[in-house]
Write a structure and sequence with these properties.
154 residues, mainly beta, Jelly Rolls, 4-stranded antiparallel β-sheet, 11 strands, globular
Length: 154
């Protein structure tokens, strides 16, 4: 009986330690599986620990009929101290053979892409993230949802 309690306690401790790295995760779903170019996605993330470095991931869930090899986005960070950083990304979603990256289940694909690694904040507060669709058409068909994951990297 002691062994069982010890094993359960150890398992819970390991799970708690693993989950502490992810401080934020949110996904925004799109009606009709279409992301309008003029619909920017915004996230407000509370930052309490300024001694740790952070990684930022962009997530996308799309159908296997997504017509493009890539997705072009702009990623902007507004830090609690008033600084802002903006970067454009041309994200590859397919390999050269036309196979999608990430996890494919049935007719959907999910991928998590590292956008920024080891970012350090110098002030506590709310960090605002904005993701813009830079694809050439007004509607980018085939996208079910996009999201943001923020995790500690130490």
């Amino acid at each position: 009986m002691k062994f069982l309690r010890y094993t359960v306690f150890l398992l819970l401790l390991i799970l708690a330690a693993c989950s502490q790295d992810k401080i934020y995760e949110k996904h925004i779903k799109f009606e009709n599986y279409s992301w309008n170019r003029f619909k920017d996605i915004k996230f407000d993330v509370p930052i309490e620990d300024i001694k740790s470095n952070y990684n930022f991931y962009f997530t996308i869930k799309h159908i296997t009929q997504y017509p493009y090899k890539n997705l072009i986005i702009n990623f902007t960070i507004h830090t609690p101290s008033g600084e802002f950083r903006t970067m454009d990304y041309d994200l590859n979603l397919k390999d050269n053979k036309g196979n999608f990256f990430g996890e494919t289940t049935g007719d959907t694909c999910y991928i998590s892409l590292l956008l920024r690694k080891n970012f350090l904040f110098n002030k506590k507060g709310i960090c605002k993230f904005e993701i813009s669709n830079l694809m050439p058409k007004i509607e980018t068909q085939g996208i079910m949802e996009v999201g943001l994951i923020v995790e500690r990297s130490d």
